[in-house]
Amino acid sequence: MAIELISKVLWFVVGLVIVWLAIGMGVGRLDEPGAGMMSVGFGGVIALLGLGGIVHLLIKRRPVQSENPGQPQEPWTRAMLWRIGGVLVLLVVYVALLERVGFVLLTAALMSVLFGAYAGIRWVWAIPLATGLAVANYALFKLALGTQLPAGILG
Amino acid sequence: MSGLLTGLSVALQPINLLFCFAGVFLGTLVGVLPGIGPVTAMALLLPITIGAPPESGIILLAGIYYGSMYGGSTTSILINVPGEAASVVTCLDGHQMARNGRAGPALAIAAIGSFIAGTFAVVAMSIVSAPLARAALMLAPADYVGLMVLGLVMVSFISSGSVANAILTASLGIVLGLAGIDTMSGVSRFTFDRPELLEGIDVITLVVGLFGISEVLQNLEHSVQRRLVTDTIGRVMPSREDWRRSRGPIARGSLLGFLLGLLPGGGAVLASFASYGLEKRWSKTPEQFGKGAVEGLAGPESANNAAATAAFIPLLTLGIPPNVVLGILLGALIIQGIQPGPLLMVNNPGVFWGVVASMYIGNLMLLVLNLPLVGLWIQLLRVPYGVLFPMILVFCVIGVYGTTGSTFQLGLMTAFGILGYLLRRTGYDLAPLILGFVLGPLLEANLRRTLIASDGDWSYLLTRPVGLACLLLALALIIAAALPAIKARRETFGPADQG
């Protein structure tokens, strides 16, 4: 109930923000539609459905029927959040350092940590495996296919 | 006929045969691996297609799409885990056949049924495409508005969760699709003074984030226990009795799948469920369904492949993608400077007929690939997810950075990944969001043209027969979705994303 209510409140707020921003773009007239007309319309739809959801949940005052009865979601556990949060933190650090450090070194480091921490591979195997995969990806995508990838400190 | 010959001359070029093979092989691979779907695979390979000739790039992406339909059945049959959404129904009887020691015949029936249905759909496609494209030339912007609204409502109707939730995500997708400089007025929309957003949100960044990253995050919630039914497949060829029982379901599934694939918003998921229902009603022994009935496998497998192929028709002839996977294909065509629609056959016959002809060849390749390589696919299923997901993350980074060369886009990809994960976690389907994103700018352009041409008279939208029929059908679907019986049924169908 709490998560559903929070999600509906967020939708409502997002809808209002879209409408507010879109009005600033110019709504125009029906015979001369402005840049913000469609966004006002769909932002309004989002806000109204969000508001409708909030009212529905508050009036019912009980958990509504599961959105997806075929696949009930288990609640978040601490271990689950650690696993997901860990990957997200690593990804953010990776993105922040990618151009400075370079693809091969940083990818080898990222994959080593993930192989070691998540796949349970011993470090003595994880590091060479990750390095090999990083070099292979660089060779395939950058050297063979011409995809742009930062060389970083090795460049 | 001359068009098809042109197509064959394009599809049989060595580079296109190579791209076709790579597409169907990768498609089967991603169909087999439960942690990665065709949407993610296409998004990751989109950058590679930019440097290739347009027809080769589209042949590769199309191969991934219909190849994944084949591959998805392998995991459904062997480990009861659908590789992609359209293979959910295959689990019901295909997996039961495997548990009864008949994994080989189940895989063979799935592969052969898919081949027959795919080939039927390609033949039908080459027959109906030209007349449909000629008819589409007579459509006005108001008709396109109706078609797009119907497509969005259909996707919302067949997606998992409530229709209200689907409309929410579709609306968000439309707004995201409108970001960037408005080409008519020059006003920048939702750019927040970031020059990277002036050309709009990159489709690759959005799709890779929403599907690639969020799928990884969702899979990290728990370790998937993959249990193979059997290490050895045993005898592969179906018995005479299996053939006799499969003939009818394959024929009906092919026809039904083709017709449902044509609908805006229709597609492989809808077709496979509809075929299963039809076969169960048609059968004299419906009680065997769910216990390893050959008909329950042959029909849906044929239907989902026929629908996957038929779905190309609205994309190539009208320029309207009927599902999320083909939405990405539309993005790929536009990146290549090709505008799908009624004039595609005239302006780019090599691309149109080349893709159609490559599907004939691709279906044959899949039949040859699937049965002998079943052992390889089984080995792949043994790769732990802990080893697989770091590679998926790296492919996501390569896909986005390779096309944009910007770490800002990588940050945006991560943000969309978190958004996608939270939406999935709270019961929202992502397919309407992507389709809204792709159709949003087209819908706006056609709506503006209609309003300007009619001097602001919105009722003009109701004067065009095709547009009016589509809008009425869309309204009927929204009303139907609110009916308690239909609401309960469609919400138990589960996720219909991933195309």
Structure commentary:
The complex is a heterodimer of chains A (155) and B (499). Chain A has helices at residues 2-25, 37-60, 78-101, 103-118, 123-144; strands at residues 28-29, 32-33. In chain A, strands 1-2 form a two-stranded antiparallel sheet. Chain A has 2 domains: 2-60; 78-154, no CATH class. In chain A, helix 4 packs antiparallel against helix 5. The termini of chain A are far apart. Chain A is an all-alpha fold and 155 residues long. Helix content of chain B is 72%, strand content 1%. Chain B has helices at residues 2-11, 14-32, 38-50, 54-79, 88-99, 103-136, 141-158, 163-177, 203-219, 240-262, 268-282, 294-310, 312-318, 324-335, 344-347, 349-370, 374-381, 385-404, 407-425, 431-453, 465-482, 484-491; strands at 180-181, 188-189. A two-stranded antiparallel sheet of chain B has the order 1-2. In chain B, helix 2 packs across helix 16 (349-370) and helix 9 (203-219) runs antiparallel to helix 18. The two termini of chain B are 31 Å apart. Chains A and B meet through helix 1, strand 2, helix 2, helix 3 and helix 4 of A and helix 8, helix 9, helix 18, helix 19 and helix 20 of B.
- What is the mean pLDDT of chain B? 82
Order of helices and strands of chain A: HEEHHHH
Give the overall silhouette of chain A: flat
The span between the termini of chain B is: 31 Å
Given as residue ranges, the uncertain stretches of chain B (5+ residues, pLDDT < 50) are 224-228, 493-499
Order of helices and strands of chain B: HHHHHHHHEEHHHHHHHHHHHHHH
User: What is the C-alpha radius of gyration of chain B, as a whole number of Å?
Assistant: 22 Å
**Rounded mean pLDDT score of chain A:** 87
Oligomer: heterodimer
Largest beta sheet of chain B, briefly?
Answer: 2 strands, antiparallel
Q: What gross morphology of chain B would you assign? A: globular
Question: What is the CA-CA span between the terminal residues of chain A?
Answer: 53 Å
Rg on CA atoms of chain A, Å: 24 Å
Low-confidence stretches of chain A: 64-71
**For the report, how would you describe the main beta sheet of chain A?**
2 strands, antiparallel
Number of distinct helices of chain A? 5
The secondary structure category of chain B is mainly alpha
The number of distinct helices of chain B, counting runs of at least 4 residues, comes to: 22
Report the helical percentage of chain B. Answer: over 70%
